[in-house]
Amino acid sequence: MTLDQPRDFAKAVGVGAIVAVLTGAVTAPLFKTGIAPMPQAPSQAFAETLLGPVADPVGLIFHLLYVTAVTTLILAFVGPRPSKWAIAGASAALWAIAVVVFFPIVGWGIFGAAVTPKIAVAALGPHVLYGVLFWAADRLLFRAPGSTDCTFGRA
């Protein structure tokens, strides 16, 4: 099944937006308090790489747009209600892209080795959170056919 209806596409954007907001709400305080071992949020680092020094809200906007767009693209590719394994695979692929492509772009080196190897391991947490939230938001907005309740069902 693909996102062949405008309503399905809108739901996919909604899934992406929910995931973006919730992951940002969880991870932003980790960066603000210095708990995260990264020098700054990757979205902030990427925004500054492209635009030079920018205010924190710009990094947050990059995060919201990126997560919403990527989640929508994944759903457009695999269709609504992907299996938990498809979501886990997408989350793992996004982690790999982050540590192999984006980390070097922002100057942290491959796997964050230019800063600390802890970065690659720490980046696993947000990607696991992404997968869990992706699954839950997808099940919420793309309910099983004939379902009238808010249960999340299987898969």
UniProtKB/TrEMBL annotation:
Indicate whether Transmembrane helix appears among the record's keywords.
yes
Q: Which UniProt keywords apply?
A: Membrane, Transmembrane, Transmembrane helix
Has keyword Transmembrane helix?
yes
Superkingdom, natural source: Bacteria
Residues that span the membrane, as ranges: 12-31, 60-80, 92-113, 119-137
What is the name attached to this protein's record?
DUF1440 domain-containing protein
